Each structure stands twice: as C-alpha cells, then as structure tokens.
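Retro notes (design track)

What went well: tokenization of the new backbones is finally stable.
What didn't: we kept losing track of which sequence belonged to which structure.
Fix going forward: every design gets posted as structure first, then sequence, in one message. First example under the new rule, 467 residues:
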C-alpha cells in the first residue's frame, strides 16, 4: 500500500503543469443523425412520416400543406395568415373555446400558422392521448367553420398588430427589404397592408381553404412513443377518407437579381437611429458550396463572437446588436445582415460593414475562427435535435424544402470538412457587396446624404409598405 502511494506521488510530481489560463481542448463532435424514420402514403395522397421516440411518453405532430403565403396574390396579403389562425377558431362541431379545451384535455397543444411555402399545424399530446390529438387535428383541417364573428375579430386583431408593428423600424425595414430583393416574386410580400386586410372576409377565407388545404401533397409528421401499426391506424382513421383537389403549386423560381447596389430609404422624422437590412440572393442548402458559405457567414456575423459583433458593437460601439444569416425558402435563398445604429454613425457603420464583406471575400478565416464557427454550428445543430419538437421540425424542413434524405445525417461531417480556402471561395461567389439591396429606415433629413455615398444611383424613397 505504501509502495503504491509512493508510485502515485511520483507520478503526480512528474505530470506536466496544467495551464489554467487556457480552456481545455474539445474533441471533435461525433456525427449526429436523425433517428430511423418510416414513411408511407395514404390513398388520398397525404404523406405520413413516423419517427419512433420512446424517451418520453409524448407524441409531437406537424401537419403541413404546400403553398402558404406565396400561394396568395399580393392584393390578398395576410389572407394565408388569417386562414391559418382561423382554423382553430371553430369547426362544424366545436367553438374556439371548445377546441382549446380539447387540446388541454390531451395534455398538449394545437396551433397553426402560415409560412412562405406552407401552412403548418403543430400539435403535441401525451402518448396515450395521441388518437385524441389526431382527431382534433383532423377536425380543424377537415371541417373548419370560419364563424363570421371570428373572421371579424381576426381582421380587427390584424389591423392592431399591423399598426403596432409599423411603430418598429426593424419591421418596416424588413417589409421594404423583401419587397425589393424579391421584386415581383410572391416572396416579396411579407406583411399585409391596410387594403389587403380590408379585403378579408369569410368567403375569401373559405375559398383559400378549399384551394390550399387538401390531402394531396399534405405531410403528416409524427414523432414519439408510437408504433408503426398504431400510426398507420391513426392516420387512416382520421385522414383516410378525406378528399380534395390538387396540392397548391410551388412558388416560381426566384429570378437572378439586379447587378448593382441600390439604397432604399424610408423616412422616419426625428428617429434617433437608422435600422439597416442589407443582403443579396444566395444558394439553397443542397448546393455543393452551401457549407462553405455557412462557415463564412458564421465567422462574419453568425454569433456573439463573430467579426461584425466584435467590431461594430464591441469595438466601435455603433450598435447593441448586429448579425448576418442565410435565409431560405423553397425556390430562393438570401444572405442578409441586419442592425440598428445611432443616426449620427450611420455612415461609418455602413462603411465598416462593407469593409467586413470585402475582408471575408479576400482573406481566409483564421484557424481559431474556423474552429469556433464549426463548434458553434455543430453544437447548435445537435441541440436542435434533442427534443421531439426539434426532430419534428427537422423532418418537416427536410420534406417541405425537398432536401436530400441524408442531408441532416452528414451535417456535422460537412461542417467539420470546411477549409479556410473553401469558406473564402464561397464568400467571393455568394457575398456580393456591389450587388447589395440596402434598406435604411431613419430620419431622411439626417441620413440621406450619408447613404447616397454608398450607391452610384440615387437613393430611392419607399413608403411603409415598401413601395
């Protein structure tokens, strides 16, 4: 025993000292894959995807219908949103209150919303109440009643929500940004107008429902403590006899954008800040260069430790927050930066942002930047799949954006495989400072002259609807 202690003491004495000033090395993250899933179709065209998950006695569902906001004409902006909200506000047998109470009884929730390319319902329940959840889910999509009173209330709420949103510069900048970067395309409309809300009535909602919510092309995702046999029986029992027309058509491909930089300005007199959104078209997630661009964006502005945040916020103090991101729809993607800055520093702030865009295109990220970007992306990706809700959303994204079956399964490996040269090359191709759409919302009297320095064309004035 004494000999053992002597040997142990000698070993400790010989060990190299630990440098407490440096964080410990983190081993490369292991591959993260989606759990095995099973897929089949009902006779009416609805696709069902089951992801068994017995970790907790819960079942999570997603029910998606193609089309969404992009399937509605610009003059009816907000109609898809109203339709989605009204699905849970009354059926042939239940009032909105009774629908909410039924969801509480199965120990879960039920909601619906409109997205650019789909209308999506989200539900969850205790595993032994999965059938009750599916029954309610089927009821709200198969027999909504769209009560006149609920339609009127939704319109009133939409007017109030729009008025409140217009008080925010960031909202106004977003409306104008999408209107310009997706000019003439259905994706360009991201908010209703006073006129489009006024057009909403029960007849228009019912017509949109008949056109957009059909089993053909619908996707039902089930994640949870559910066997294939029970899932098949549940789907057939509640959705098997449903009939409807063809699925809504996809949004058309987004055309190639303009080849020069344009600045748009929405005047907000006496505003103490300028809200910027700037960006250019990018590539889908299934493009071979996507992960190189993902890393380049992460280094540039994807987290709190990114270049934009460290310089524009921490060093220069121009803003309290700035970020860049890649944003995707079914037929179009974009690279985007957004930040509010103090009015008096609008010019140097925008110059600094453009300087960072030039740098990410000309210089490879450092080894440390690459390491941090990869760890952040791989870690957040793994965390996103830890819950049933995260798994359901991942399967939903895989199918609605029509990504390859194994896209998620190789995510971590492809993130880790990106090189500095690859990130620089992707930035050169897909981050295009000379072709940016730049939207600014602020006091024109104080900001217009400064903004004019960043475009060879006159600054274009827009209104609150981006026109």
């Amino acid at each position: 025993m004494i000999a053992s202690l002597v040997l142990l003491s000698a070993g400790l004495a010989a060990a190299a000292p630990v440098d407490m000033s440096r964080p410990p090395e983190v081993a490369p993250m292991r591959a993260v894959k989606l759990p095995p899933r099973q897929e089949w179709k009902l006779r009416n065209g609805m696709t069902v995807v089951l992801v068994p998950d017995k970790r907790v006695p819960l079942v999570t569902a997603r029910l998606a219908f193609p089309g969404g906001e992009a399937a509605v004409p610009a003059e009816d902006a907000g109609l898809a949103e109203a339709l989605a909200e009204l699905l849970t506000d009354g059926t042939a047998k239940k009032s909105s209150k009774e629908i909410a109470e039924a969801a509480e009884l199965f120990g879960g929730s039920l909601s619906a919303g409109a997205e650019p390319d789909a209308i999506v319902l989200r539900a969850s329940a205790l595993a032994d109440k999965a059938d009750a959840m599916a029954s309610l889910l089927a009821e709200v999509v198969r027999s909504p009643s769209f009560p006149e009173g609920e339609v009127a209330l939704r319109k009133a709420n939409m007017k109030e929500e729009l008025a409140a949103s217009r008080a925010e510069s960031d909202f106004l900048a977003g409306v104008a940004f999408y209107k310009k970067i997706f000019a003439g395309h259905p994706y360009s409309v991201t908010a209703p107008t006073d006129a489009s809300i006024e057009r909403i009535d029960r007849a228009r909602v019912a017509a949109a429902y008949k056109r957009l919510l059909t089993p053909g092309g619908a996707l039902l995702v089930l994640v949870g403590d559910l066997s294939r046999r029970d899932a098949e029986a549940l789907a057939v029992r509640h959705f098997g006899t449903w009939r409807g027309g063809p699925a809504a058509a996809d949004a058309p491909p987004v055309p190639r954008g303009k080849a020069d930089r344009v600045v748009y300005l929405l005047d907000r007199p006496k505003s103490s800040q300028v809200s910027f959104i700037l960006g250019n078209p990018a590539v889908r997630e299934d493009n071979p260069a996507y992960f190189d661009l993902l890393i380049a964006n992460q280094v540039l502005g994807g987290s709190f430790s990114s270049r934009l945040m460290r310089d524009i916020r921490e060093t220069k103090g121009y803003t309290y927050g700035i970020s860049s991101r890649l944003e995707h729809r079914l037929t179009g993607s974009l690279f985007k930066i957004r930040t509010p800055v103090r009015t008096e520093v609008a010019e140097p702030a925008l110059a600094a942002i453009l300087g960072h865009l030039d740098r990410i295109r000309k210089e490879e990220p450092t080894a440390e930047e690459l390491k941090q970007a990869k760890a952040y992306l791989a870690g957040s990706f793994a965390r996103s799949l830890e819950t049933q809700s995260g798994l359901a959303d991942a399967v939903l994204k895989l199918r609605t954006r029509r990504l390859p079956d194994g896209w998620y399964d190789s995510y971590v490996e492809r993130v880790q495989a990106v090189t500095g040269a690859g990130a620089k090359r992707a930035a050169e191709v897909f981050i295009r400072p000379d072709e940016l759409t730049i939207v600014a919302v602020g006091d024109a009297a104080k900001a217009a002259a400064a903004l004019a320095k960043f475009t060879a064309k006159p600054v274009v004035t827009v209104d609150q609807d981006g026109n």
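Added context from the reviewer: The two ends are 85 Å apart (CA to CA).
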